[in-house]
């Protein structure tokens, strides 16, 4: 089935949802498209793409930035690069070592690029041993754009949740109807105080919670 672009905030943020099979589980992931004030597009966590989808994206604007926001979010970066060769690529710290084949222009950090600093805040979360990512806040809409830092699967899950997914989320990690960081974070966070200093206990309050999941793996 062809992937489609859905509107999250009219004229500003769009999402593309697609199926992912990981660890024996059927999950769903999202790509986020943000239209910047200059009319160009900022692409967060690229999805599978073909000519039809690429043409649909071009109707929204010219892709200027391709963002690989986490060390588990990278499979389709090169596909997007092939369709949008003029775009600059930004990668999460650590991905440049994990995927040495990906050509990139910049490594993300705590300071937004000057071309989107008026529209985004961002922070790199790199204190876990198994996984890292960079969290983004779209300031005008107060939309928090994450990958694995917060996962939300429960009774309102709109897709078919298989038995294996329910087992892990209910019995093992107690995440069903209880949004938490991905299991990879839970198993590998060493210095929890460092995380609190980076994010703040109440950093999520007052923001739209845009999950680029429920459960996103690339």
Query: In which order are the strands of the major sheet placed?
Result: 1-2-3-4-5-6-7
Cα-based radius of gyration, to the nearest Å: 17 Å
Question: What would CATH call the architecture?
Answer: 4-Layer Sandwich
Let me know the CATH homologous superfamily: Ribonuclease Z/Hydroxyacylglutathione hydrolase-like
Low-confidence parts, pLDDT < 50 over ≥5 residues? Answer: 201-218
CATH class: Alpha Beta
Number of DSSP-assigned strands: 11
Gap from first CA to last CA:
19 Å
The number of distinct structural domains comes to 1
Compute the number of helices.
Answer: 6
* Major β-sheet profile: 7 strands, mixed
Strand proportion, as a percent range, falls in 25-35%
What's the SSE pattern?
Answer: EEEEHEHEHEEEEHHHE
Question: Structural class from helices and strands?
Answer: alpha/beta
Spatial shape:
globular
Under CATH, the topology is which? Metallo-beta-lactamase, Chain A
Mean pLDDT reading = 81
- Portion in helices: 10-25%
Written account of the structure:
The protein is an alpha/beta fold and 218 residues long. The protein has a single domain, classed as Ribonuclease Z/Hydroxyacylglutathione hydrolase-like (Metallo-beta-lactamase, Chain A, 4-Layer Sandwich), CATH 3.60.15. It has 6 helices and 11 strands. A hairpin with a 4-residue loop joins strand 9 and strand 10 (143-145). The radius of gyration is 17 Å and the shape is globular.
